[in-house]
Please model this.
Amino acid sequence: MTVLERKAHLVKTILDDSLDEDMLAKVEIFVYMHKRPCQYTVEEVRKGIRKSIEDVEANRITSYEDVAKRYSL
Model:
């Protein structure tokens, strides 16, 4: 099976309605953790930091324990 065929097979599997929420979350985590590093501008980094600070101040946070439970870490 070629790389292109394997990618197509993976996309079909992801689009399959039988893929449950938990498995989709695990696929997302795997893909994001193994992507090449992103290149952000200084302003994009600052914007992300500002949003994170706002989220913490507004108590829009999730504990590590809750994340670990949800994603079986």
Remarks:
- The two ends are 32 Å apart (CA to CA).
